[in-house]
Amino acid sequence: MVRTAKFTLHPEFQIGTVDPRLFGSFIEHLGRAVYGGIYEPGHPSADRDGFRQDVIKLVKEMNVPLVRYPGGNFVSGYNWEDGIGPRDQRPRRLDLAWKSIETNQVGTNEFLTWCRKVEAEAMIAVNLGTRGADAARNLVEYCNHPSGTYWSDLRVAHGFKEPHHIRTWCLGNEMDGSWQIGHKTAEEYSRLACETAKVMKWIDPTIELVASGSSFVGMPTFPDWEETVLSETYEQVDYISLHTYLGNLENNTAHYLAKPLEMDRYISTVVNTCDVIKAKKHSKKNIQLSFDEWNVYHEWEQPEAMKARPWLVAPPLLEESYTVEDALVVGGMLITLLKHSDRVKIACMAQLVNVFAPVMTVNGGICWKQSTYYPFVQASRFGRGQALDLNIHSPTYEDREYGPVPYLEAVGIWNQENEYLTIFAVNRDTQSSLSIEADVRAFAGYKVVEHITLTQRDLKAGNTLDHPDRVVPRKNGDARLEKGTLRATLPGVSWNMIRLAAGSH
Ligand code: AHR
After folding, report:
1. Closest protein CA for atom 6 of ligand 1
2. Are the beta carbons of 456 and 471 closer than 8 angstroms?
3. Residue nearest to atom 3 of ligand 1 (CA)
4. Long-range contacts of range 487-490, CB-CB < 8 Å, 24 or more positions apart?
5. What are phi and psi of 65, to 5 degrees?
6. Whose Cα sits closest to atom 1 in ligand 1?
7. Per-residue pLDDT at 501 exceeds 70
8. In sequence order, which residues have a C-beta less than 8 Å from that of residue 148 and are 6 or more positions away?
């Protein structure tokens, strides 16, 4: 049975302006993200700085405006000073977060050089696990102070005359988690974050700071953690972080496709928590959200397995193979972020290369795009402008955890400047296609440009080294306009991008 969902596209149903940083990503010193991922000096495509140009090409296609670095769990044991200066003098260290050997051949300056090549800004996390205010303030001085002081002159001596001007900084990572090196209680973290934030901003008042929120919505301390942290740091910080990894652990596609609703509720709770603290403080300032780790996953290495592994440089870790259904959940997560673009200003798909990644590489060999690459690229390219609430009326199915789940998940984007309208939509129906009927009379003169779908009969199919193009989007949708009504058929279990544009576009 083909069901019908209805909605309206209207310029007055604006949610907010999409901050381009919503399409950020993440590179951690973890597995082969850095070594063998972005950096491999012996690779045939390596440039003179040792960066793989084949990877740079794919990352540039993704139009990623911001990349978080260097962790993640890694940052909680990291001495940033190990990664600067002459490479042959840099120490090899044990990285306890991922039981690996860190050679420090890539550090802050190399990463920022790579960021310039992919035209992204960096979002740098400071270590609040084993270190604190002193190391953090020195790093800000090293990166952002023009010259004439110990740390800024050292940067100049290292070949970077101009300051790096890092705008956004994370105050630690997942400090509420017992797995974190230097795990802290909310009170301990709050005091440290507050004092660290204070001195970082004294050095450079233009920077923006992200307080570490809960590691995930299921943490027993959520949302008390947010309440305590924001009560202590409200005036010092600008964002609070959120992290979510969704998986089809139950092997139930309909349930998996509904999971972005969990992300939706998580965001609403954090927004409410921020605003309660705002009210208590009688503050005029809004704390915004930085969803700086989000993605889908299949398996996480358990601590026992990690302990049993030998110490290695850049071992392959968390190298997931993504499927069609994973791509759809990523699409649902992108739609969720866009639907909250009034408060979520930064988001980082975690991660970018090899680790839970849209881009995979072979050491010394090729790189390819996973299924999850495609919804991200489309959203990053056409998801910029005003996010529009579609006022959706969709038939639903019952899920034991989420209750009634709409078959249709969708958001509209209106790019007023370029006069284009984009609808990103997921049909969650595992049995049938879904008809959509949208009232677009308010956008007179707009015409359908394309309707791209991503779907396949085999929902577990994915791209591999041998079959890198098994899952690709196709321009085969039937979206059409009839007297102010947009009609289309969304195939069963599909990601869709429908684009309209005005006049001659
Ligand atoms: O992205 C992998 C890990 O997931 C990060 O290091 C950590 O912050 C999160 O738990």
Report:
1. 72
2. yes
3. 72
4. 487/435, 487/436, 487/437, 487/438, 488/435, 488/436, 488/451, 489/2, 489/433, 489/434, 489/435, 489/436, 490/408, 490/425, 490/427, 490/433, 490/434, 490/435, 490/436, 490/453
5. -85, -15
6. 350
7. yes
8. none
User: What integer pLDDT is reported at residue 136 of this predicted model?
Assistant: 98
| Mean pLDDT value of segment 222-230 | 98
pLDDT tens-digit series, residues 271-305: 999 999 999 999 999 999 999 999 999 999 998 99
Cα 174 to ligand 1 centre (Å): 8
Nearest to 440 by CA among 419, 418, 417, 421: 421
Q: What is the per-residue pLDDT across 107-117, written as a single tens digit (0 to 9) for each? A: 999 999 999 99
Structure tokens at 259: 């999971």
Cα separation, 323 vs 335, in Å, equals 19
**Is 40 exposed, middle or buried (CB count within 10 Å of its CB: 0-12, 13-18, 19+)?**
buried
pLDDT-based confidence at residue 1 (cuts at 50, 70, 90): confident
Q: How far apart are CA 466 and CA 366, in angstroms?
A: 10
Which residues, judged by CB distance below 6 Å to any ligand atom, belong to the binding site of ligand 1? 28, 71-73, 173-174, 215, 293, 350-351
Distance 180 CA to ligand 1 centre (A): 10
- Residue nearest ligand 1's atom 2 by CA: 72
- Per-residue pLDDT, averaged over 451-461, amounts to 97
User: Could you give the 3-state DSSP secondary structure of residue 405?
Assistant: strand
Full set of structural domains in the chain with CATH: 3-10+387-502 (2.60.40.1180), 19-382 (3.20.20.80)
Q: How far is the CA of 411 from the centre of ligand 1 (A)?
A: 28
pLDDT over 70 (residue 12): yes
What's the CA gap between 417 and 198, in Å, rounded? 39
Q: Which of 26, 174, 299, 300 to mutate to test the pocket of ligand 1 (most atoms within 8 A of CB)?
A: 174
**Given the CA of residue 318, which atom of ligand 1 is nearest to it?**
2
**Burial (CB count <10 Å: 0-12, 13-18, 19+), residue 300:** middle
C-alpha to C-alpha distance for 222 and 215, rounded to whole angstroms: 9
Residue 504, pLDDT > 70, answer no
Q: Looking up tokens 């984007």, which residue turns up?
A: 413
Mutational test site, ligand 1, from 25, 27, 28, max ligand atoms within 8 Å of CB: 28
Report the alpha-carbon distance of residue 264 to residue 500 in Å, rounded. Answer: 27
Distance 72 CA to ligand 1 centre (A): 5
pLDDT of residue 505: 55
Give the per-residue pLDDT at 147. Answer: 98
